[in-house]
Amino acid sequence: MSSKILILGSGVIGLAIAVELQLRGAQVTLVGRDINGAATNAAAGMLAPGAEQIPAGSMQDLCRRSLYLYPEWTRKIEESTGENSGYWCCGILAPVFKELENSKQNTKFVETYRGTSQTLEAGKQSDDSGYWLNKEAIHQYQPGLSTEVIGGWWYPEDGQVDNRALAKALLTYSHSLGIDIKEGVIVEGIQQRQGEVIGVQTNIGTLSAEHYVLAAGAWSNQILPLPVNPRKGQMLSLRVPESITELPLNRVLFGENIYIVPRRDRRIILGATSEDVGFTPGNTPVGIQNLLQQAIRLYPELKDYPIQELWWGFRPTTPDELPILGSSPCKNLTLATGHHRNGILLAPITAKLIADSIWEEKSDPLLSDFHFSRFLERSSTNIPMLTHPANFSPNSAVADRQNIQYLEDSLLKIAGKTFQSRLMTGTGKYRSIEEMQQSVIASGCEIVTVAVRRVQTNAPGHEGLAEALDWGKIWMLPNTAGCKTAEEAVRVARLGREMAKLLGQEDNNFVKLEVIPDPKYLLPDPIGTLQAAEQLVKEGFAVLPYINADPMLAKHLEEAGCATVMPLAAPIGSGQGLQTIANIKIIIENAQVPIVVDAGIGLPSEAAQAMELGADALLINSAIALAQNSPAMAQAMKLAANSGRIAYLAGRMPIQSHAIASSPVSGRINE
């Protein structure tokens, strides 16, 4: 069996998967921006499921299974390459600076530091393979600790690996196995068609394979709209002075806000900060100062050791800080990302499980707990109209007899991002910035469109727009309004993405695509729209294209990988209401992506009608901005969108060709 597999990402996860698949007979190509600059090189290499107090459950199971694979896994790598990975089952000490409850005997300690409340005797084992050492025992076990240390946990199964040496050995192993490794490759987008990846657009051209693995760490979100964001960590290393003949530390120290990892080559690694600052590079004085203060407090001798190196890296972090592993929406794309601070630890098990899934078509039950769909689970929206009436008690006998049930709705999901509101608004045509601000608030919307060109040129009504809204609460939808060709639209979309980043939305890859060469009727160009959409999808954008209500074009755009389709109800700004109902119904019936009705709605009744058809959302600008009281109209549109959605979920009565009495004749009491 021979299969061509393309792995996106050259860190330890990507390399480990590549080696495992190649050993099983696959033909693997691996691409990465900079193998030497991968996040792997910024780690400390701790293997610490015990010391890090990973909660019981699937994550702990995953970590322990990987830890137990490490001895044999690294032995094979070292034997095959002749290079040392630095694997060392040195154990980890977790000293504590808390007061003893029973200080007289120095034998008991109430464990509150790690979230439990249990009294342990010295040397007693906890539930997670750790042993409690009292003050005397821990200072004997590791001389040189601060006098403030009154005890600590000893995790004999935990250890470390030299992450840089491991990456180097894996790279050597990969070359020896014949894996095709391409460095300096920047992935610009994934080409998809009908639920399958057909190629990867890169700075060196389009790369194709039979199967793809996304293992790009903190950069994964720039390739697919996954909830993976960078979490910066600053680190430094000290060097044991040559005047000290014996290494003072032979085990990792894991403190409350610091870890100290000794290497056999006399380096001592100190880490790490945890900063939600996007991809902001560089070390900072306050970050390094904090690490040094915490390390010296724990192990005072370090104050006299020379600093050898400073560096930083970006952890790939998901909202629940657990990895994303397994299948994706595309049948030939597998995900292996979001490992947060456990990428080195989880490399062996990730490689095994992913290879089993791809090569053996065998999915380990454990993978289900790390599937990307956990971020897309249905949840109830808080629609006020679904609450119980004020004069009705849900616990009454009437309610019990009637078995009344209340509607639940799923959240609006676009390109993996969820929104409570199904009403989007624009920012143009208002009489003032203040009126726009009030209307956005009154609408309850979470997405607003921003015409990129008008903001850049400070067009009337757009001065100060960037400062007018709270971009921490409002998601920007950059708009290519004013673009007459596909090429123009692609350029403006790129500018829009940068504009969103400047306003703090680093992971915003959304774009509302408009290609309109017709200045009189402002009807979108279907050919130019499709061309621009295909290019933008390749570049990793979540494309929301504005189109005529053309069911065939809508299907082509969906197949090209667009995040939504936005058919017009009537020409832009006309306020004519729904003039394309029949075609919008067809589009909604056949779509597998959200349908947003855009342009032409003039009244709340028309907004409700569009939602009653089954549209997922509305985009309304002119009807609000040009109303005599814009904020009031914005609130009316909000209520109409909610009302229409509820009506759609409730299901309308059948249309009859004749009258049917509301009160039935059968069962009537005859006089």
UniProtKB/TrEMBL annotation:
Its EC number is 2.8.1.10. GO terms for biological process: thiamine diphosphate biosynthetic process. It is found in: Cytoplasm. Residues 4-356 form the FAD dependent oxidoreductase domain. InterPro entries: Aldolase_TIM, FAD-dep_OxRdtase, FAD/NAD-bd_sf, Gly_oxidase_ThiO, Thiazole_synthase_ThiG, ThiG. One of its GO terms (molecular function) is flavin adenine dinucleotide binding. Keywords: Cytoplasm, Oxidoreductase, Schiff base, Thiamine biosynthesis, Transferase. This is Thiazole synthase. Belongs to the ThiG family. Residues 413-664 form the Thiazole synthase ThiG domain. It catalyses: [ThiS sulfur-carrier protein]-C-terminal-Gly-aminoethanethioate + 2-iminoacetate + 1-deoxy-D-xylulose 5-phosphate = [ThiS sulfur-carrier protein]-C-terminal Gly-Gly + 2-[(2R,5Z)-2-carboxy-4-methylthiazol-5(2H)-ylidene]ethyl phosphate + 2 H2O + H(+); glycine + O2 + H2O = glyoxylate + H2O2 + NH4(+). Pathway: Cofactor biosynthesis; thiamine diphosphate biosynthesis. Its main location: cytoplasm. GO terms for cellular component: cytoplasm. It is an enzyme of class 2 (transferase). It comes from Mastigocoleus testarum BC008. Catalyzes the rearrangement of 1-deoxy-D-xylulose 5-phosphate (DXP) to produce the thiazole phosphate moiety of thiamine. Sulfur is provided by the thiocarboxylate moiety of the carrier protein ThiS. In vitro, sulfur can be provided by H(2)S. The active site is at 512 (schiff-base intermediate with dxp).
